[in-house]
Amino acid sequence: AQSVSQHNHHVILSEAASLELGCNYSYGGTVNLFWYVQYPGQHLQLLLKYFSGDPLVKGIKGFEAEFIKSKFSFNLRKPSVQWSDTAEYFCAVNRQGNAGNMLTFGGGTRLMVKP
Amino acid sequence: ETGVTQSPTHLIKTRGQQVTLRCSSQSGHNTVSWYQQALGQGPQFIFQYYREEENGRGNFPPRFSGLQFPNYSSELNVNALELDDSALYLCASSPGGTAGQETQYFGPGTRLLVL
Q1: In this predicted structure, what is the pLDDT of residue B112?
Q2: Which of these, A85, A99, A95, A98, lies nearest to A33 by C-alpha position?
Q3: What are A34-46's pLDDT values in tens digits?
Q4: Secondary structure of A25-48 in the HEC alphabet?
Q5: What is the pLDDT of residues A14-33, one digit of tens each?
């Protein structure tokens, strides 16, 4: 069964610091990759996604992620965080061609940005 | 906001009872997925419905069942509630199309507490 690991459970940063959140998955086939964010009191929102093509994808609010197939990784980055980025971040994977379109989520990383 | 709505927002039940949660998908979407998010964890896939048929199921017992209606809204039913069923239940809709290459749009969730 595929699994997704997010190694950092809690991250605390000061505003303007750079962010990198790790995500590794276990499935060896062709995958689709997603990062979702959950702001306090709000629903899960899509930050960015990768299906194919350029492995460096850009999302909303200045976030980007790089797919490194050889490392089974899809790390999320932002050069300079803001207080409003305080949220929980989830990496998710599904298998291309998966008829059930099941998303497998990591355990999440809770980010706190200090003003 | 995604246009995916869920009801009720909160629910308290006792062990052994049955519960029905409801979801209205975003306009134009014919696929609905249900996830369970326990406290401090990432969402776990329960099942998905595509055009009123179950289209994939995660590792949940048969007492978790669902329906999708002709207007693509959906219900999640849980029988014989257990304490461990306490969680946030998320509904996500997607437009239906290339298997695996779809973005799922999440609703705000229903928080279920089983006493």
Answers
A1: 98
A2: A95
A3: 999 999 989 999 9
A4: ECCCCCEEEEEEEECCCCCCEEEE
A5: 999 999 999 999 987 788 99
Asked if A59 is an interface residue toward chain B (Cβ–Cβ < 8 A), one would say no
- Spatial separation of the C-alpha atoms in residues A5 and A92, rounded to whole Å: 9
Facing residue for A101 by CB, picked from B33, B41, B42: B33
Closest chain B residue to the Cα of A96, Cα to Cα: B100
Going by DSSP bridges, is the β-strand pair B53-57/A45-50 parallel, antiparallel, or unpaired? unpaired
Report d(CA A34, CA B100) in Å as an integer.
Answer: 11
First to last CA, chain A: 41
Closest to B101 (Cβ–Cβ): which among A6, A45, A96? A96
| Percent residues over pLDDT 70 in chain A | 95
Quote the strand ranges of chain B, DSSP E: 5-7, 10-13, 19-24, 31-37, 44-50, 53-57, 64-68, 74-78, 87-94, 105-106, 110-114
Q: What does the DSSP 8-state code read for residue B62?
A: T
Residue type, B32: V
pLDDT in tens, A44-67: 999 999 998 999 999 999 999 999
Would you call B58 and A95 a contact, using CB atoms and an 8 Å cutoff?
A: no
Q: In the numeric block, which tokens belong to residue B6? A: 């869920």
Q: B-side interface with A, Cβ within 8 Å? A: 1-2, 4, 31, 33, 35, 40-45, 48, 55-58, 90, 92, 94, 99-109
